[in-house]
């Protein structure tokens, strides 16, 4: 497997790949499905921005529902999340004082999905190092596919 050749002693992609998939198999069905959905993100971004926004928003909303059900809110006490909420609040306040408050507020309101996604990745989906490495490999694969697509387009435009 190619992962053996790109590995270094400090970061063995091959063993992380095997261990990560073993850790995924131990998850509940829901967490397993959400982890697979999370891995699809880089490929959804290849389609277009709107499906990627839906993907990101769904992860954030499902994470919120999960937190409500499990009463798991410890992640909200982190400084980075409090700072993100403060920035979001300032943005919403400035949207209300803009010339077009309804449009500005609705555009600013949805920006909370980014810190929610980051929190979901941090405390839920990517808690395990080996699962994070699988996601990084998924991002790498998506990037390589995008590079191939762009090279084909450049070649077609050149001809």
Name the helicity range: over 70%
Separation, N- and C-terminal Cα atoms? 35 Å
Largest sheet properties: none
Based on secondary structure, the structural category is: mainly alpha
Shape: globular
Mean of residue pLDDT values: 92
Uncertain runs are none
Task: Tell me the series of helices and strands, N- to C-terminal.
Answer: HHHHHHHHH
Count of DSSP strands: 0
Beta-strand content estimate: under 5%
Q: Counting H and I runs of at least 4 residues, what is the number of helices?
A: 9
Key features of this structure:
159 residues, globular
Would you kindly provide a written description of the structure presented here, covering whatever features stand out?
The protein has 159 residues and is an all-alpha fold. The protein has one domain (12-158). It has 9 helices and no strands. It has helices at residues 2-6, 13-25, 29-39, 41-47, 49-70, 79-96, 101-109, 113-125, 129-158. The model has no long low-confidence stretch (mean pLDDT 92).
Write the layout of secondary structure elements.
Blueprint: H1 2-6, H2 13-25, H3 29-39, H4 41-47, H5 49-70, H6 79-96, H7 101-109, H8 113-125, H9 129-158
What's a concise summary of this model?
The protein is mainly α and 159 residues long.
């Amino acid at each position: 497997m190619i992962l053996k050749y790109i590995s270094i002693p400090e970061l063995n992609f091959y063993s992380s790949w095997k261990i990560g998939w073993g850790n995924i198999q131990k998850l509940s069905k829901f967490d397993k499905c959400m982890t697979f959905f999370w891995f699809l993100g880089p490929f959804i971004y290849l389609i277009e921005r709107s499906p990627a926004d839906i993907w990101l928003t769904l992860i954030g909303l499902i994470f919120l529902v999960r937190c409500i059900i499990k009463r798991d809110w410890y992640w909200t006490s982190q400084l980075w999340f409090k700072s993100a909420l403060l920035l979001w609040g300032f943005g919403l306040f400035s949207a209300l004082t803009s010339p077009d408050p309804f449009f500005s507020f609705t555009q600013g309101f949805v920006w909370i999905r980014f810190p929610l996604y980051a929190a979901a990745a941090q405390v839920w989906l990517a808690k395990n190092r080996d699962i994070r490495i699988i996601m990084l490999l998924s991002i790498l694969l998506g990037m390589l596919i995008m590079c191939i697509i762009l090279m084909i387009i450049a070649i077609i435009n050149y001809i």
